[in-house]
Amino acid sequence: MANVAVVFAGGVGKRMKSSGVPKQFLTLSGKPILVYTLEIFQHNENIDAIVLVSVENWIEKCHELINKYKLDKVSAVVSGGSNSFLSIDRGLRTASSLYPSDSVVLIHDGVRPLIDDCVIDRCIDSVRKYGSAITVSPAKETIIINKGTVVDNILDRSILQVAKAPQCFILSDILKAHDDAIREGMNDFIDSASLMFYYNKELHTVEGPLDNIKITTFSDFYVFRAFLEARDNSEIFGV
């Protein structure tokens, strides 16, 4: 039994348009976004190991970063697939070859660096108790359903939540869902929560911070930078 983070950083960040550098390797204060994410799991006392899924051409760079930042919980670095589902699949199968089938696996975006120990610990507890943990945050804005350019319905924001990450399961359970999906020719699920929901698995939620953003665009990058600056200032001035 182990608690294993599967961090997938296999995308190339087309929306970021960052001169050929995948968004997870963009630096802030000299440190790549991916490292900020990995360090959260590295320093969490309940995480036993990390499996990193990377863009194939950047695997060597990942090993350099692992050594530089002493990320010794990273037990494997594997190349990603053609989409996020297949990238996660490769990470899960690597985890399955290294750790027991009853391990808790925390599936997380490499460009989602604003989670904390509390979220990780509560996710692990939820999986041990219920078999799943989907990190969520409340919807901040009004959600509408359109028919063309006409508003068809306005949803009750008070009952809506946004699914984020980590998304966490028992390793054998999520692997079975992957096996079923691949056998049925469905390899384009947008995330693990959607996959497990499709196969009628009961999903339990863990509320995380609103600032648990996924850095997809440059505006997200600037939000992350502002967050780090605010955190650094609060530490300096004891706020």
UniProtKB/TrEMBL annotation:
Keywords: Nucleotidyltransferase, Transferase. It comes from the Bacteria. GO terms for cellular component: cytosol. InterPro entries: IspD/TarI, ISPD_synthase_CS, Nucleotide-diphossugar_trans. It comes from Candidatus Ornithospirochaeta avicola. It holds the Pfam family IspD. This is 2-C-methyl-D-erythritol 4-phosphate cytidylyltransferase. One of its GO terms (biological process) is isoprenoid biosynthetic process. PANTHER family: D-RIBITOL-5-PHOSPHATE CYTIDYLYLTRANSFERASE (PTHR43015). GO terms for molecular function: 2-C-methyl-D-erythritol 4-phosphate cytidylyltransferase activity.
